[in-house]
Amino acid sequence: MAQRRQYVIGADDIARKFERAKIAAAEKLRPALVKSGEELAADMRQLAESSRRSGDLIESIHVTGPGETTPAHSADGGQRKAGEYEVLVTSGDSDTRHSHLVEGGTDERQHKDGTPTGRMPAKPFFNPAYRLNRTRIRRRLQRITAPPVT
């Protein structure tokens, strides 16, 4: 049995309107994403002050905008390219690779000769900054992406 195709009158016009709306939303969304990433990074830097020794950790907090590449050694030991609608906030670079130890702390360990290395208490900065900002970021992005009420 042959299938019949059905056509909606004006479907092409509707598709073009959706495409224009998508482009308009994208133009507003990217600056909001970058602003949210910068706010998150600023709070992370503020919270990381408690663990300051040299300032390397604070200086290693980077915001990677849409389409950009993260610094070396900041995302799972390598570089990562942010998606079209994605902002990455990372800590760590080729000189500073201890942010996970500051965030979570360490248990006491021992050298090969048996002398203790001591333990480092956790001084979280990454997750608390995210938790402080997630509602504001979500609402900002929802205001942009939500359809207008007519």
TrEMBL record:
<feature type="region of interest" description="Disordered">
    <location>
        <begin position="61"/>
        <end position="128"/>
    </location>
</feature>
<dbReference type="InterPro" id="IPR010064">
    <property type="entry name" value="HK97-gp10_tail"/>
</dbReference>
<dbReference type="Pfam" id="PF04883">
    <property type="entry name" value="HK97-gp10_like"/>
</dbReference>
<protein>
    <submittedName>
        <fullName>Bacteriophage HK97-gp10, putative tail-component</fullName>
    </submittedName>
</protein>
<feature type="compositionally biased region" description="Basic and acidic residues">
    <location>
        <begin position="94"/>
        <end position="114"/>
    </location>
</feature>
